Amino acid sequence: MEWTAEAEEALKRVPFFVRRRVRARVEEEAAAEGKRRVTLTEVRAAQARYLSGQAAEIKGWQLETCFGSGGCPQRALPTERLVGRLERVLQAAQLYDFLRREVKGGLKFHHEFRVALADCPNACSQPQIRDVGIIGVCVPETTAEVCSRCGACRDACPEQAIRLATEEGRPPTIALDRCLNCGLCIRRCPTGTLAEAWSGYRVLLGGRLGRHPRLAFELPGIFEEDRVVEILQECLEFYKRRSRGGERFARLFGEEEVAAWTRRFCGEREGGGSERQEG
Question: What pTM did the predictor assign?
Answer without folding.
Answer: 0.77
